[in-house]
Design goal:
Helix content: 40-55%
Strand order of the largest sheet: 2-8-7-4-6-5
Shape: globular
């Protein structure tokens, strides 16, 4: 199958699952099809899926990622010993683990085509990720607490694992409790990474954006938390600070002394 054939197959299969959308026609343009497919991925509840669907989906998503271009950790230069700064799309980063800024439900973003990292990671990992998260949360029996983290396979992403952490939601200026919870996100992810034998981990800018933690304060907490963990545990795990926005890249460059 070509990418177009795969995309049309996936759209048709997802529309068929939900009778309320049965009258939606597959649009003619590639871009419109991609928008519709992502929307359908985003709103799909965690429910069983056929092997045939997964085979087509996996081939499609992996090809899409190849077309975007994959960046391996070996392509990067450290800015400090064991610390990297990378400006790019975390769903294209090939490393042991990437961090997802999740919500307390841990099921991904259900808002069609939303711009958050949770949406992007769930979209390009595939429907298996939401199924895995739903199973994990069902066993836990309650929502994830702020500052904690969980680990899952990365499925169709170039990384091996995804570490999902719930950052604090800020109303106004961050309180000492907010800062402590954000630091806990970094510590929880690092502990999980160590327990699962990861040698490197890429952190997004947790709690910024939709959760409104000021970018500069969040970055200061991130850098200090990583350094504290390494000092306390003598961990040799390599850390990639992944940024997507220019403002965050500037902040981290200044904090890490790369100017």
């Amino acid at each position: 199958m070509t990418q177009t054939e795969r995309r049309r197959y996936l759209i048709a299969a997802l529309l068929k699952e939900q009778p309320q959308y049965s009258k939606i026609k597959i649009p003619p343009s590639e871009n419109e099809q991609k928008i519709l497919l992502r929307s359908l991925f985003n709103i799909r509840m965690p429910m069983p899926v056929t092997d045939e669907f997964l085979k087509v989906q996996d081939a499609y998503l992996q090809e899409e990622t190849r077309n975007k271009g994959v960046t391996a950790l070996s392509d990067l230069e450290p800015v400090q010993k064991g610390i990297y700064l990378w400006h790019g799309d975390i769903t294209t980063l090939q490393c042991d683990g990437i961090v997802n800024a999740a919500n307390s439900q841990m099921l991904g973003c259900f808002c069609p085509n939303h711009g958050c990292i949770d949406n992007a990671i769930h979209t390009f990992a595939g429907v298996q990720l939401r199924l895995a998260c739903a199973s994990m949360m069902k066993k836990q029996g309650h929502e994830e607490e702020t500052g904690n983290a969980k680990i899952t396979p990365a499925y169709n992403l170039p990384s091996r694992y995804i570490l999902h952490t719930v950052g604090p939601i800020i109303h106004g200026y961050p309180t000492p409790k907010d800062t402590a919870q954000l630091a806990s996100c970094y510590h929880s992810c690092l502990e999980l990474a160590e327990q699962n034998g990861l040698q490197n981990i890429a952190f997004c800018c947790i709690s910024t954006g939709e959760f409104h933690f000021p970018n500069d304060k969040a970055a200061e907490t991130a850098v200090q938390s990583i350094k504290d963990f390494k000092a306390q545990t003598h961990s040799e795990i390599e850390v990639i600070f992944n940024v997507f926005k220019d403002i965050d890249y500037k902040i981290y460059r200044e904090l890490l002394g790369t100017n």
